[in-house]
């Protein structure tokens, strides 16, 4: 009895699954397919605006790792048209593996300054972000810390928090230190920072600010937009408290400027909807999308002349950016990763 | 049964299935031959021993905790009588349905500085900041051991309990009459006899611990699986990562060999079950302690996380319970059900083939097909993409050249990729369960059926299938629950716009938005409960007025048996 009902049950499931697989494979007429390293809820508002304006549907696969490998193996049959990334390393990796194609577009050239895009148009930066020092309002006087270098100063012993040294954001900053000071000095600096840590590197950028508000530490490293996301977080009001407990420090204003990186996109080599991908790319660099990025995500628009959101103006104002080229930073990332292991930064 | 034509056919069947299922692992092996650079000198000089140290500490800690909890609880519910025993008997299985990453998020939310527990303490004692008092840090090695143990102990519990039930009561009675106290009798007689089953459960626990990434990453415990991802992602060295993954497999093979040896010994213990069952009557303080122990374990692994999730989910129920959410839940359910079906079918063929075409090659093949269970999920996913995409592209080339049409990514671009990953990963579970069921069917049954003119297929259908249906069912159930919880492979392999409950939960929880992910997490557990309850029905003891069937319970031991 049991085995018969078992078989029947399985059969029903199989039929349901078959119909379900079929409905999935039916595709819309005008579409653009996106592999995204950025979380869906971050890009949704902008993508929705794109669909509304052009009628082109967007479809997204989000994953935090492995999309480059997936694209590589899928080869010319890959359905992906566009890859969205949250750092430069992934863009470089795509180009190195020959998975992108160059896009030649007047619109893009006009909207995106040269330092934020590939010379041959293999990839384009869409937003910039600054790596900031978050400092406790109560325990750190304004002006007490002004540069990344000072994070290694012994006076901060037991007062610094950061995420894993292996995270792309950390690696990017360390790579820029190598570009500026060379490997040897950067190693010393990294050792100094490690000696100052209040706890083992853990959590994301927001978790560090939270730690400051809880008194675990006084200084942390974090991307600029997290501040905006926290201080406007109606859904989880405790994050507003975290943000209120810190001052933002834009490091190195007196010399090379604050470390910057980009989020960006590249059109895939075998994009089946190449034209739509280019349209989306142009849209993302356009006034409306750039404004949305700034307004909703608190990132800095790459496009000059787009108004920065009120909140950004209020808290961040104008500041000096490190203009080290993205390609150069990317070239030092492997060395940075090695240094992080050598000083056992995460342990 | 010699090399009759039928045995040869079964040999080929086993060969084909085992190779297909082993394709992802083989692909990872292949990757390991092409590293970007030799990762080992650097690792050796820097962090390798940190990784290994953390891995060993975590494994040892989880092993100890699951042993004490699992065996202790199993002993209590199967050998003693105390208030709530009948409930705990199946209730203790519930934490099995809770994914480790979910419980990690929940307890962090509860026990961290800003969480309600510490808030309450601060308010009660007038402390201002974290510098005023000490509180154990949840995001730590200890925390990781606790989280993994709380949801993994059911493996040990399930198997230990089955083993205790199978033991012949008269042996214990003999040990007692020879002067053993109940405690001595447990240590000297019952425990050693249950050892093989416990070892099987433990090897499962350890493999789950080794391939875990979500929990350890969240808790900043840097084990080898963190090392694998780091080598791959931040150093761009997929080949090097594959090498580390393969080296951890060596450790697993060691475990498996250990387990197989244990199982070989198990065969000597032919149980005469159900006879002379006697339970110790616990009274007073002891009864209370037993009830308390079981309650705490159940509360920790199930009660507390459920309450927290419920509170979050109900707070905003209307805005989360959308059509989208329901279709996501349906995706999860269907995928897991189909994967359970596939592993049941393939597992049956493998186990039966191994029975008919006995031999070292077949045994090795079946063992090899199970290695996917120990591979970290995202690495396994890359291993799935490689052969599937290669097949798709070859087929597509062919179709374009000769048929003037394109077949595109037939397999790797569809849900099939996820199904394949689930099957390759969890087949070990279902094959193990069916094998152990089949082992109990005496070969004379086969011979009788064959001599009455049935061929091997008819014998399988008419004789074996009814006899091993409990094994098939329990294997399928465990696979179902495992698939509901699976995250890393699903995340990478899914088609456009396709979510499962696990990916839905991950998206929000990884960005500190536990509230929004709560409903998804709750659904994973609730849907996962269904099979756990089914399983518990199969575990019912004799007092429930049913025929005692320890055999059904015993199907699970070799759940992940790699033998």
TrEMBL record, chain A:
Residues 1-28 form the signal peptide. The keyword Ion transport does not apply. It comes from the Bacteria. Keywords: Signal. SUPFAM superfamilies: Periplasmic binding protein-like II (SSF53850). It holds the Pfam family SBP_bac_6. Belongs to the bacterial solute-binding protein 1 family. This is Iron ABC transporter substrate-binding protein. It comes from Microbulbifer flavimaris.
